[in-house]
Write a structure and sequence with these properties.
- By secondary structure, the chain is an alpha+beta fold.
- The protein folds into 2 domains: 91 residues, no CATH class; 64 residues, no CATH class.
- It is built from 4 helices and 6 strands; from the N terminus they run ααββββββαα.
- Strand 4 and strand 5 form a beta hairpin.
- The longest helix has 23 residues.
- The mean pLDDT is 93.
C-alpha cells in the first residue's frame, strides 16, 4: 500500500527531481512538497463526490443559534471539505454552509454526507492517486527544475487521468434515477 512519501516521490520523479525520505525532512524538495501537496490534495478531493472520501454523520444542533433567517446551526467535522447531501437525497430542506457550520431550519439532527479530508494516500482510488501524482509533478516541475514544458505535459496528463478516475468512481454503486414531471407534463 502506497503512503504519502511514495506519492510525493512519484511526483518528484515525474518532475525530474530528487526523491525525499519524508515530507518533514527539511530539504528544498521536501519543503516544496509540504507547501504544494496538501492544498492540491484537498482541492482535488473537494472537487468531486469521491467514494473514498465520503463520510456519513448525524450532527446535533449547536447550543448557539444563527442570528437570523435559520433556526439551527450544526458544526461540521474537523475533516470536512464539502457537503454533498443534507437530510437525504430527496430532502427539500434548505441549508447553507457558513464558517464551517451548516445553518438550517430543519429539525435536528442534521444527516450529512460530506467529502472528508483524506491524508492517508493508501486510501485513494488508484486512478485518483495516479492523477494526483501527475498534477503534483506538474507543480513541482515549475518549482524545482523550472521546466515549463514538462509541467504543461504533466498537467494535461493529470487532467486526463483525473477524467478517467472520475468515470471509474462514478461506476461504483447503484445507479441513482432522477425523474422530472416538468418534461412529461402536457402544457397547453
Amino acid at each position: 500500500m502506497a503512503d504519502e512519501t511514495d506519492l510525493l516521490n512519484d511526483a518528484l520523479i515525474q518532475a525530474g527531481a530528487a526523491t525525499i525520505s519524508g515530507i518533514s525532512e527539511g530539504t528544498v524538495n521536501a519543503n516544496h512538497c509540504k507547501r504544494l501537496y496538501p492544498a492540491l490534495r484537498d482541492a482535488e478531493i473537494a472537487s468531486h463526490k469521491w467514494n473514498f472520501s465520503l463520510k456519513r454523520v448525524s450532527i446535533a444542533a449547536d447550543v448557539a443559534t444563527p442570528a437570523f433567517e435559520y433556526t439551527y446551526q450544526h458544526s461540521l467535522p474537523a475533516d470536512y471539505l464539502r457537503v454533498w447531501e443534507f437530510n437525504g437525497l430527496d430532502s427539500t430542506d434548505v441549508y447553507v454552509v457558513e464558517n464551517h457550520k451548516i445553518l438550517s431550519s430543519a429539525a435536528p439532527p442534521a444527516l450529512v454526507v460530506y467529502g472528508a479530508q483524506i491524508t492517508n494516500a493508501g486510501l485513494f482510488a488508484p486512478l485518483f492517486y495516479q492523477a494526483l501524482t501527475q498534477l503534483l509533478g506538474s507543480k513541482l516541475s515549475l518549482a524545482i527544475p523550472h521546466d515549463e514544458k514538462r509541467a504543461m505535459t504533466l498537467w494535461n496528463l493529470g487532467r486526463a487521468t483525473m477524467d478517467d478516475a472520475l468515470a471509474a468512481d462514478g461506476q461504483e454503486g447503484s445507479i441513482q434515477t432522477y425523474s422530472s414531471t416538468a418534461l412529461t407534463t402536457d402544457v397547453r
